[in-house]
Amino acid sequence: TKEMCQLIRNTPMASFTTSYATSGISRTANIDVSVEKINGAILMPGEEFSTLAYMTPFSISNGYHPAGSYLNGKVVDSLGGGVCQVSTTLYNAVLLAELEVTDRRNHGLTVGYVPLAADAAVAESSNMDFKFVNNTKAPIYIEAYTRDKTVTFNLYGYDERNPKRTIEYKSEVLERVEPPADVITEDPTLPAGTRIVTQSAHVGYTAVLYKHIYENGVLVDKIKINQSK
Fold it and tell me: In the prediction, which pLDDT does 77 show?
């Protein structure tokens, strides 16, 4: 209704940006396509947003290209590779707006565009989704765009939070796990002494994301948001 629309402020409740400056053509195209599909979405009070519902299907006919993605601890090419950066950017905007997150899972490997435990993976094959609910009194308008190899989400709505209260999210590492020694498998079909690296080792982490709440610049609370491994 007109009355509900008039509640929406022209200053975002929250905004978040990540960079994909080092991405290749295919990954860049996937990010652009998925952002375009989400831009302009409206979420009514009490309604749940499903990122997969807007992005999928990850198919050539839907505009996606093969690009690097994570699968069982390895980097493989798959249609839509790179869209997790879009869901992650949206996740961080949602956290800053303090909307209710109902479904979020971390990647199996670390990502470079946000701190540990600040990511949100999506995968059509396993129905891994990022979902959140509009827990405010007014519609949420989602603005999403890419510019100069950055992706930005602005969430517009009716922000009733005290302006003297501010929040900040910080990642803390609980555990660092060094990979074991290389696994070397003999292949009798190769010339003697030949070595081929089929999978590189990665350092593992357990990390926690905390929300720090300040009033008049003074820390008053610290809330655990998630623990990721």
Answer: 63
29-60, pLDDT tens digit by residue?
999 999 999 999 999 999 999 999 999 999 99
Among residues 16, 208, 39, 221, the alpha carbon closest in space to that of 99 is found at: 16
Q: How far apart are CA 74 and CA 35, in angstroms?
A: 25
- Looking at per-residue confidence, does 131 or 71 come out higher? 131
Using CA of residue 212, residue 19, residue 110, residue 76, what is the dihedral sign?
Answer: positive
**Tokens 């009798």 belong to which residue?**
188
Record the pTM. Answer: 0.91
Length of the chain: 229
Rounded Cα–Cα distance for residues 181 and 200 (Å): 11
* Tokens 């969430």 sit on residue: 155
End-to-end Cα spacing for the chain: 44
What's 163's DSSP letter?
A: T
pLDDT band at 66 (very low <50, low <70, confident <90, very high): confident
Cis bond leading into 57, ω under 30°? Answer: yes
Pair type for strands 204-215 and 42-43? unpaired
> Which of 119, 97, 115, 108 has its CA nearest to residue 51?
119
- At residue 120, does pLDDT exceed 70? yes
If we measure between CA atoms, which residue out of 1, 40, 19 comes closest to residue 148? Answer: 19
